[in-house]
């Protein structure tokens, strides 16, 4: 059961106040917004003061967790936009239960993440890590590689990012299937989508398990010891969603025991990943710094998406990418997934 | 001007003698051949003796260069098959000018090489080498990656392997074009194919230059200082053809001077690459051990291709993959490239 989506057209006042939570750098291309609004560029420690009276909030520094503490000061807020795809960091109960409309940056990260996942799949199949290690020793280490054509990927999370991953892996001949909340049989990109309750059963088919789900109460800790035990010993886990989708201790144990063959992790429970984490030095693990979706030019794209939504808000048009705060993501009808 | 292709149906004798040049391991699945022929498994040092009287030769150890020295002993040879795509190692003048039919292993390596090249392209675009280096230092090194969607690849060599590379790179949104001996305007896979004389002019458009040409008199040293100077400073060179297609000294100089951004090399003038080569330790170079086309299961596939051709030979049918020994590769009509 889900709550109704909050109204997508909060009335904008004549000259609104827009707070922008940013760290060291402001979003580019904000002149259009600055012309018609009082824009308060603010930081985590000044956020509460600047939220007072603000009509809209852009969470540009989406890694900040400052909003929840400052939330009681949000006395006039109607709309919050986040410069990320996942909204888990801002979906604390007070915001979720408020009338504030939440929008995200769907549309910016899909293609880059899909390419990144394919790069990781190919790095595993061709053992690029092994080749680079041999190169450091000036060692000619000939061996056979694996094909990706015909290999199977189970993609956990069937939102726009999982869907882009599916299309890209399929384009190089992989078999893909999806596991997601809305399990729904045939699907043009996934072939078939299974419900989350089928996760463990489907994982046994996978050469690659790609985790690209939103982090919600339902998905937290989804990939645990039982899920990992269901995977093939030759399978690799790729997580480009959120660290907490995977139980890290279970993953470390599974890798050490040879229950799965490897993991490529772009997201972690704590970011940056602490220097003491065992993941850094495990031979079958690739640690990357939450960069899968971030390509050259993504910051102007994120800013342009906010500016576009701002214009819609000013003109009373429906906002793009309205998050269903009870689902924890932007619900996308199956027919509208290729935009 | 090309010489006529030698006859593809050398008459097989009643019980032929088939020599198989192999190193430590014999080809699998040879029982069918052994039933109807006297099969002489031989090595480089015994080759001359075993070639005497042999009707057919399988060069299973295609890395061996023993054939030229043993050639005068080939007094009855009608057909030679090599377990590789490139035939440069056996195309010495005496074989080329003889009536011996030469066939190769076209059809086994195309898909694997295409995947490998895509893996290298993505490894560059996402800087996987940098991420792995940071991981070794337990360092969270966040930065923006590059997209491959929309990037341009110029593929040098428009035979079956270059064509498979073109299709695969195109499948992930790259723009591709071909440069090859038979420059011919529009092409379904390459978009457009330019002649070799246009090489230097076209290289300036490339984010990635993929060398997948056969090694012939015409292509030896094709990528030299002038060609490298024509490339963008941000471009990467990928060589999966033969080492001698690239002038190694020029490449090393270009990389050191920042004339191009990087190189991934799977083939070298001398293989294994000598430990003293500067390529091993250059920061923007990936050295891999001539493995791009060799996936798990490729040896049975190579053997099966020979056994199939052997059956054709016995039945007087046209052989598959007859090499035009003056061109140095199997000529493929444009309409027959998708088999």
Brief digest:
Chain A has 339 residues and is of the alpha/beta class. Chain A contains 11 helices and 13 strands. In chain A, strand 1, helix 1 and strand 2 (38-42) form a beta-alpha-beta unit.
Question: Order of strands across the widest beta sheet of chain A?
Answer: 8-9-7-6-10-11-12-13
Structural class of chain A: alpha/beta
User: What multimeric state do the chains show?
Assistant: homodimer
Mean residue pLDDT of chain A: 94
How many structural domains does the protein architecture of chain A include?
2
Please describe what this structure looks like:
Chains A, B: Pfam families: 2-Hacid_dh_C (PF02826). The structure is a homodimer of 339-residue chains. In chain A, 50% of the residues are buried. The two termini of chain A are 27 Å apart. Chain A has helices at residues 31-36, 47-51, 67-70, 93-96, 110-125, 128-136, 160-171, 199-203, 225-230, 248-256, 298-314, and strands at 17-21, 38-42, 56-59, 79-82, 101-103, 152-156, 175-180, 185-187, 191-195, 208-211, 236-239, 262-265, 285-287. In chain A, the strands form 2 sheets. Chain A has an 8-stranded mixed sheet. The first copy, chain A, has 11 helices and 13 strands. In chain A, α5 (110-125) packs across α7. The first copy, chain A, is elongated, with a radius of gyration of 21 Å. Chain A has 2 domains: 17-108 and 296-336, NAD(P)-binding Rossmann-like Domain (Rossmann fold, 3-Layer(aba) Sandwich); 110-287, 3-Layer(aba) Sandwich (Rossmann fold). Helices cover 27% and strands 16% of the residues of chain A. Chains A and B meet through α5 and α6 of A and α5 and α6 of B.
